[in-house]
Each structure stands twice: as structure tokens, then as C-alpha cells.
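WARN no homologs supplied; continuing
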Amino acid sequence: MALPVLLFACREEVSYADYPTRAIVASVGETHLYKDEADIAYAQQGRGVDSITFMKNYVERWAIDVLFQEKAKENVVATDEIDRMVENYRRSLIQNLYQDRLITQRLLPNISEAEVRRFYEEQSSLFELTEPYVKGFYVQLPANAKKTNSVRKWCLRKGQEDLEELEKLCSENGYVYQFFTEEWFPFADLAHKVPLTEQQLMDRLLKKSTIEFREGAFDYFVCADSILKRNDIKPIEMVAGEIKELLLNSKKANFIKEVKRSLYDDALNSGRVILY
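OK structure emitted
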């Protein structure tokens, strides 16, 4: 007589274990926050944070969000407008995903150097500088440093070996320096590194490409191999990446426009689109 009762009890115990009740952490009316949801949030966002503090703040934010959503529903009754906005967003999202897939699969977005140069030459007025730029370098070392004469010689000659020796000396002795011989550097940033105004520095470098002066406890050497003044046209190497991006976006837009036109023409010819 005891055996059937025992077997029934075992079956009941397994059944409840297979379908556990979700533990509730907090409730707002009939809306519940479950422990497993909070645990997932902590695993994703709570690294390095005390778990009790995290959970306290998380539950509070959850309750506030639920309460505010309820209040919003009570005061926003234009649900048709919301449904329309959601549907428009859904349509836009689907179309954008399909558009990206089309571009990836069927468009070869190669922009040649000839295309870049042609656009640069035809649209040069788009590339006027709003601030000056410079290529060169500067060095700041203590006044009466032992190798000042060598620094002066290297700065005036500016050969590859000279620049290597200059950089080695500065690195070994902790002198302040910066090379920008291969890239355009904002002139204002250079002026901030030396005790001269931007205009003073510009005037002196336009007269002589390498200048030397002492201010307080430091000697300064500034070299400007090339200077671009405000309102000059940016050199093509400064804007090549920008032009490529612009041309690529134009190609993508034209490609999608052609795809849409082809869809319309085919549907019109097949009778799917009827114009009354």
C-alpha cells in the first residue's frame, strides 16, 4: 500500500522541479520584475559594482520607468499616431537594412585617384582653409645646453640624418620636441608651444623658414618647411579621404535610386502598378 503513494510523491516532486516558479524581486501593480532578469542585468552591467548597491539602484530605476510609462499611457491618448510612427520606423528600418545588403552585394565602391583629383580640381572652392597649417618641427631645450650648436646646425640643414640626430638627442635628454614634417599641423597649436603670439610666429616664419630665439630659461628652434595660410586651398592630400567618402556616398545614393526606378518601371510595365 505504501509503494504507490511513494511513487506518486516522487512524480510530484520531479514535476515541480521541472517547472520552477520565477522569483519576483519587485512589483508595480500587476507588472513584475523577476530575479532572473535582474541577475542578467547585473551580469551585463554590474562588473566591479557591489551587487546589493547595483540591485537597489536597478530595481528603483525599473520601478520609476514602469510608473512613468503608466502615467504616459494615461495622458497620451493618440495611439493611432503612435502606431503610424512605429510602422513608419519599421518600414524605414527594413528598407535601410535591405539597402545596405544591396550595396554590399552588388555595388563595387571603388573610387579611383583620377575621380578624386577631378572632383578636387572642379570643386576646389569647397576646400578653403579656415585656419593656417604648417609642416616642420620645433625643439625646446634649456638655455646654454651643451649641444646647442649641433642643434642649430641640424635645424638649418634639415637632412634625414640631421633630423635623426636631433630626435635622438631630444629623446635621450628629455627635451621637448615635435616633428610634423610629413603631415599638416594646425599653426595655432604650434604657436601655443612657444612664447610668441600666432601672428608673431607667422610673421617671423614667413621671412625665414627656420628661426631661433631665447625666452627665459629655454632656447626655441622652430622650422616651417611649408605654410598654408588662411583662405588658401587645402592640398589634395589633406582632403583626399573626405572626397572619397563624398563620392562613395554619391555612388551609393545613385545606385539605390536606379534600383528603385527599375522596380517601378518593371511593376508599371507588368501591370502591378496602375495609374488612373
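Residues 111-128+233-254 form one domain.
OK
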